[in-house]
Design goal:
By secondary structure, the chain is mainly alpha-helical. Helix content is about 80%, strand content about 0%. The chain has 2 domains: about 1-80, Tetratricopeptide repeat domain (Serine Threonine Protein Phosphatase 5, Tetratricopeptide repeat, Alpha Horseshoe), CATH 1.25.40; about 80-134, no CATH class. The N and C termini lie far apart (about 60 Å). Residues about 1-10 have low confidence and may be disordered. This is Tetratricopeptide repeat protein.
């Protein structure tokens, strides 16, 4: 890092660039690198839903499921209407084996935005819950 980078390390421009870099890294399935890139953004803007959502996605893809759950829960505290956060929280809870909780989140996500991806996840978890009960 040169002097110019140090000078803007704490600026909004630097955080924006770091956020965009982290987004690209998540998309390219490099979640640990994404989390590293996202560090300055998380320190400065932890109360922004978009930042928590991106961190949650990176945690999810790196199998840090407890951290993912915390990030997605924070998104929903900040913006309860975020259907995608509900969907990925449901998927996180599913991977944690908490199927009934997952089912609740997936139902809400689907009710808010009835897209096929949400319906498929809802059907899958619903079938698993029925298998456990039966």
């Amino acid at each position: 890092m040169d002097d110019e980078d140090l000078g803007r390390a704490d600026t909004g421009e630097h955080r924006f660039e770091a956020f965009r870099q982290a987004e690209a890294l998540v998309e390219n399935r490099r979640p640990l690198d994404a989390l590293k890139a996202l560090e300055p953004v998380l320190e400065a803007d932890a109360d922004k839903p978009s930042v928590q959502l991106l961190a949650g996605r990176a945690y999810f893809h790196s199998a840090q499921l407890k951290h993912a759950e915390q990030a997605f829960t924070k998104v929903l505290e900040l913006d309860p209407s975020d259907h995608y956060a509900r969907f990925v929280l449901g998927r996180t809870l599913q991977r944690l084996g908490r199927l009934v909780e997952a089912l609740g989140q997936l139902r809400m996500a689907w009710a808010m935005n009835p897209v096929p991806e949400y319906q498929d996840a809802l059907s899958e978890v619903n079938a698993r819950v029925r298998l456990q009960e039966g």
